[in-house]
What does this fold into?
Amino acid sequence: MDEIFHVIIDPSVLSSEQKMHSDCSPHYFALSLEKNKLAAEMLVRSRKTMRCSCMGYADDMQILWLINLINEILDEAGVRI
It folds into this structure.
């Protein structure tokens, strides 16, 4: 069975607009975990708002932050690729 996880984005990598939109926080990425696959959505979402200008595609710094986080989780879990 597939699992969907919400990964809250570290405030230090939020864009200036996302930081200003405290009413929309927390901002997060959605991850889908399947038996043999992990998929990451590169869309910054809001837990409180369905549509806002602070939501959108992740920038380079946010993508790198997510990749590093996933690598750390896999390493700690002993998953080798």
